[in-house]
Amino acid sequence: MAYIFQQALNALQLGSIYALIALGYTMVYGILTMINFAHGDLFMVGAFFCFLIAFYLHLSFVPTLLLSMTGVAFLGVVIERLAYKPLRNAPRVSAIITALGVGLFLENFTLALAPYPKHIPTLLENTTWTLGTLSISSLQIIVIVLSLVLMLILDFIVQRTKAGMAMRAISWDKTIVPLMGVPVNKIISLTFALGTGLGGAAGMMYGLAYPVIDPYMGIMVGWKAFICAVVGGIGNIRGAMIGGFILGGVEIMVAAFFPSTYRDFVAFTLLLVLLIVRPYGILGKPQPQKV
Amino acid sequence: MTPSEKILAVSHLSVDYDSIHAVDDISFDVGKGEIVTLIGANGAGKSSILRAISGLIPYNGSISYAGKDLKNIEADQIVAAGIAHVPEGRGIFGNLTVMENLKLATWQRKDKEQIKKDFENVFSLFPRLKERRKQQGGMLSGGEQQMLAVGRALMTDAPMLLLDEPSMGLSPVLVRDIFKIIQDINQAGKTILLVEQNANMSLHIASRGYVLETGRIVLSGTGRELTGNPKVKEAYLGG
Lengths: 291, 239
What we know:
- The complex is a heterodimer.
- Chain A is mostly helical.
- Chain A is built from ten helices and four strands.
- In chain A, α1 crosses α8 (217-232) and α2 (39-57) crosses α8 (217-232).
- Chain B has one domain: P-loop containing nucleotide triphosphate hydrolases (Rossmann fold).
- In chain B, α3 packs parallel to α6 (142-155).
- In chain B, strands 6-7-8-3-9-10 form a six-stranded mixed β-sheet, sandwiched between helices. A four-stranded antiparallel β-sheet of chain B has the order 2-1-4-5, covered by helices on one side.
- Chain B is built from ten helices and ten strands.
- Chain A binds chain B through residues 162, 165-166, 168-169, 171-173, 175-176, 178-184, 289-290, and chain B through 54-56, 74-76, 79-80, 84-85, 87, 91, 93-96, 100, 103-105, 107-108, 152, 156.
């Protein structure tokens, strides 16, 4: 029993990181119907920003988090302006190829600057509480709680603020939005900033939980988070969160009860089956409510 | 109506789509407080004119509003400059509630107190919208969506409204209602440029009209003159 509870906690930790990244994919898709395949690499950049800030500036946890998020958000906005905006009316496949190119650029740029894996300094005293056979680390709690707080803030922005209304309106029909006096380009930038900022936060948390980081760490995690977004219903924010926790849960539970090499195989099989049953994802509809 | 101060001036406007002249060297103007209508068949270029004014499509020629050249102004700033556009097909955001649709249109405004009053004004003009304010825009009927589209334009607080086929797809009773409302809004001080296929109704409420054929103005005059014109009668008023 304690073992299952222990694994559930691990699943929540991994799931919340997947969910944070999946949000970035789903928000960009919702607003531009484009998959930002560089998003996994922005997650990686988030971990490296965290490393740079913690290692060279010796800042503590909260300023490091805020600076990493801001840095990645800024990078996301710049990428959208320079690489994606000129292609907004081009065929979608051009934008997707560009996104893959941007991802490769980020990987190799980081590789050029940091050829060896880096170790993120300890930013938090990690205390572990033991209850019988159950052990809970403070880091685990922080990752889960912080992710949930960030997701609640995002949900509030999208559902309750005027900027969120504008994002949802753009996902419905971008051509009408300027007639409301809403500057569409600024809202698209804001969406990129929010989505990639969350990816940056995820990168930092991943780096704290698994401290060795390298330029290719975003590839597999990025693909998995993308799958979470699709499973939840791409374009649907709450769907992305649910998708993240489902994949986190499946992976941890498979590794807990089967040889751990089965993990990705079983996880992806389950997801394929789910998509056959529900092609639009869990919360997606044939005409999904996007962003 | 006495000729008043020109508020919107369109001169030598041309719009091309892939080498097709949708609008071909058109000039006209709208006076402050007027209802001016552009009538013509499908494809005569009426919607393109409105889209050019709103800054949604590129064009040649010049468009100015209240003395300000609109050419290099972004569409969202044209709303701030004072022109609200009710697009063809209404353009309601189906995933936003009625209230959210209205709120979004206040994006450029800072006058909180006046916004509150304008909400009440819109809801008294369209009581149906008040009843349905928490419903999603996509759940509304065609007539309700048209009311919401006009309500949104009012919420921008722009003094000038561009209305693109407000009668499209509505039953005759609703068409009469919507034209009555257009008149009321005009009486309350809004300048209106009305694009319509329903020439009969629009010439009836308009002070002046222009008849478009394949991107050109072929006739113009007061509403009464055009209603009496034999060519207009034959082509647009059903003989």
